[in-house]
Amino acid sequence: MKKGFLLVMAVGLLACGQNRTDSPQMPKSVTLTRDVLQDKIKGGWAGQTIGCSYGSVTEFRYNGGMIPAYTPIPWPDGYIKWWYENSPGLYDDVYMDLTFVEVIDRLGVDAPVDSFAMAFATADYRLWHANQAARYNILNGIMPPASGHWLYNAHADDLDYQIEADFTGLMCPGMPNSASEISDKIGHIMCYGDGWYGGVYVGAMYSLAFVSDDMEFVVTEALKTIPKESKFYQCMADVIRWWKQYPDDWQQTWFEVTRKWNQDVGCPSGVFGSFNIDAVINSAYIVIGLLYGEKDFFKTMDISTRCGYDSDCNPASAAGILGTMIGYQNIPEYWMKNLREAEDMDFAFTHTSLNKVYDIGFRHALQMISANGGTVTDSTVTIACQQPVPVRLEQSFEGHYPVLARSMTVPMQELDTLQFEGTGAVFRGKLECKDESYVAEVDCYLDGERVETAKLPVAFHDRKQEIFFRYQLPKGVHTVAMKWKNPRPDATFDFTYMLVYSDAPYEHPHARLQAESMKNKSVN
Fold it and tell me: Which end of the chain is more exposed for a tag (fewer CB within 10 A), N or C?
């Protein structure tokens, strides 16, 4: 810690240090100078922005594989400012946070969830996956928490809330349960189950990084906010276990994690493909960076980036958590030089810059400390630390297993009935029209009954990502029909994809059929 930033700590915080002979314990309280608290908050926001910038050119370019060490990742002078000015959509995992921060600043942390939902749904920025599905739901009257529930959102387990939850931990220093309460409200706008757990866990790690400088403690203690029965918990526990088994080989841990947990049963874009935006695997890559990074800023970012998949958002979270732990003044100048050029620039689609959110975040943290049993004076804050407790158990797509995917290109007006055998299905299409005000309407029939009139806007902002989907159907053969109600000459609409689920994993018939073939041959 640099001179002038005295850390005043309560008895108990020392137990979270590097002495591994004693089991670290969460302190009952921690006292920090106000300057240290603000420095840590600034470090979190700065680290997140730097990490996102560092991984920018790698995002989803190495799907299913790690980024080789010999692959250069650039960091030229003026890099962050360049992204702000030329491709500001890169920072979706920052300006999404700021959407909710701005609502809290206007209306308070107890603002109704509808205020957060409408600010998010009506914002000008582009969205994808769980966020876009939730936006469509909200704009069409399906409000939280249904907007994020897997029965209404086929992307519920995607990492969308995981990349947007940093602010919850930054405003709840040492108070992971308070961060979880905020996540319960806001995270269910767009996610459920493992998708929600990703945000809960990230928020808890930020929260604990204020009161411990032991990364193993932070990663392990934060996991106590997640139910042990969940897939998310089991994966993170595996990461920690393999880190202990292979302490000097992050690539071996990456291999073990990827081999066991690299699967996606929800996102229609990821099932049966190499693409994986599921929160579980991507959160594992955050943790790999944190544990193997050894509190070195570059190493932490670089490892989380080279794990692959969402390799700008994952290093953003890892660098943000580490930035919170070490503080703004201890982020190496090599990275800060580029950041300082952009600190006064508002993030796209917001009225907030880094310099503004440093102050806003500090004010929110003081409010949360006071509201949760702590004390604030002119020079210090005393945090009443919270022992992490698990949030409720919830799992998306429970009992649903993808068994079949069919890609095709059939004009909707020529589409006959479709049949599938299973317990659920997702149907997608491609709509094109130069008139962005056009909204296609499709009557969707399941087993002869109209179950939905899907409204499909051409406008990217308002689009519906799937024509429709249904889960929890009785197992058996089902018939689907889709009737385009309002076709027009300047619009084309093709049916393109069907994803089918059943109540048990797919069993390859080849071994059985081969054996039967050989048996028949021997008989003949």
Answer: C
13-225+314-384 and 401-510, same CATH topology? no
Residue 440 has φ and ψ, to the nearest 5°, of: -75, 145
CB-CB contact of 205 with 162 (8 Å) = no
- The residues pairing with 440 across neighbouring beta strands, listed in sequence order, are 456
- Where do the domains of the chain lie? 13-225+314-384, 401-510
Residues 6+ apart with CB under 8 A from 14: none
Provide the terminal-to-terminal Cα distance of the chain, rounded to the nearest Å: 82
Give the Cβ contact number of residue 45 at 10 Å. 28
250 versus 15: which is more confidently predicted? 250
CB-based contacts of 62, cutoff 8 Å, min separation 6: 308, 309, 311
Residues in the chain: 524
Would you say residue 7 has pLDDT above 80? no
> Which backbone phi and psi does 19 adopt, to 5 degrees?
-75, 105
Average pLDDT of the chain is 94
How many C-beta atoms lie closer than 10 Å to residue 517's C-beta? Answer: 10
pLDDT band at 25 (very low <50, low <70, confident <90, very high): confident
Residue-level pLDDT at 407: 96
> Is the model's pTM score more than 0.85?
yes
Tokens representing 91? Answer: 């920072």
Q: Distance between CA atoms of 25 and 13, rounded to whole angstroms?
A: 8
Topology of domain 13-225+314-384, CATH: ADP-ribosylglycohydrolase fold (1.10.4080)
Grade residue 285 by pLDDT with cuts at 50, 70 and 90. very high
Cβ atoms within 10 Å of 151's Cβ, excluding its own: 15
| Cis-peptide, bond into residue 145, ω within 30° of zero | yes
C-alpha to C-alpha distance for 135 and 463, rounded to whole angstroms: 9
Question: How many Cβ atoms sit within 10 Å of the Cβ of residue 488?
Answer: 12
Locate 186 and state its tokens.
Answer: 């806001």
pLDDT in tens, 194-249: 999 999 999 999 999 999 999 999 999 999 999 999 999 999 999 999 999 999 99
Task: Calculate the CA dihedral of residues 54, 57, 62, 66 and round it to 10 degrees.
Answer: -20
Helix (H) or strand (E) run with residue 504 in it: none
435-448 average pLDDT score: 98
